[in-house]
Amino acid sequence: MSGGVDSSVAAALLARRGYDVIGLTMQIWQESQTDPRHAGCCSLGAVEDARRVARVLGIPHYVMNFKEEFRSSVIENFIDEYAAGRTPNPCVQCNKHVKFEILLQKMHELGCSKLVTGHYARIRFDKVTGRYRLMRARGNEKDQSYVLYSLDQKQLSHSWFPLGEMPNKAATRQLATDLGLSVADKPDSQEICFVSEAGGYSEFLRKHRPEIFSEGEMVDKTGAAVGRHAGIPDFTVGQRKGIGLSPKSGKPLYVIELKPQENRVVVGYAEELLQTDVAIKDVSWSSDKPSEEPVRVSAKIRYNMEAQKATLYGGPHPRLVFDKPVKAVTPGQIAVAYRGKSVFAGGTIFKES
After folding, report:
1. 121 sits in which H/E element
2. pLDDT per residue over 156-205, tens digit each?
3. pTM above the 0.90 mark?
4. What do you get for the CA distance between the two ends of the chain, in Å?
5. Is-catalytic flag, 193?
6. Residue 316 — φ and ψ, nearest 5°?
7. Catalytic annotation on 94?
């Protein structure tokens, strides 16, 4: 229970159905944040919200300190990735190493049979293949199967996402209102949950590891210098705002590549961000067995993107080849492939040397 409306309603649904429910809140970050847009699941206020909901539902509630585990597996990775010129997805790291690893272990220790969260996704058991399938939410507006792609068969077998059946977020909020939950109108977190600095992730990085910032050159694709930058971690592929350059042609400039070894930011035009071939690594075959043969899929390279038609190639050098070029393929981000409504596979995007 993160203190938000989604996990609160998930707990309420199960309690209403007569299950024995235990509310668990992870205390994973030490800083309090009063602005609800940035409070996420990490603030002291969020813990209090979860406790109040548990009291209304009449279920036991426990707070577990996972600060060290969260710091080592999520925050340190977040900083290291930006230092290496990549753009990480901390929600995926948290799901992989904290929520569905450490928290799942705690679930077993408490004698529970399922770990229930407020994610919008579904799990189905396929009797033909004998495997669990991770599926899109019934209402695609809030589908979160993308950030859950790495769940393995054991994790899927012990997890449950009741909100995957909800038509949309409005229905979830209405149900929370009907149940008298105080978090019914609580705003969704708009930022990375542990980043509360006014300057966003860049200020967070400067605060926690200033040595990864050093001034360097901005260059075009030919290598010609066009300006200066204050540090590689300030940028991500596809970025337009904050570059600080006025293009002579009048066309907007974008970050098209980061070269941390040379401390260079490469800028160019929108058409230079387009590509069809996307290399991936650390592939998880969530619902299916690994495929050596090319498989037709729909895939996306960022959470809020519409899935596009592509071919997934497995083997020692897995890659996605899109039918039409996609924009801003960003090393460190996640590519997820679907077959129908099921997650087929996913992995981390990287740039081949």
Report:
1. strand 121-126
2. 999 999 999 999 999 999 999 999 999 999 988 766 888 878 888 999 99
3. yes
4. 42
5. yes
6. -70, -20
7. yes
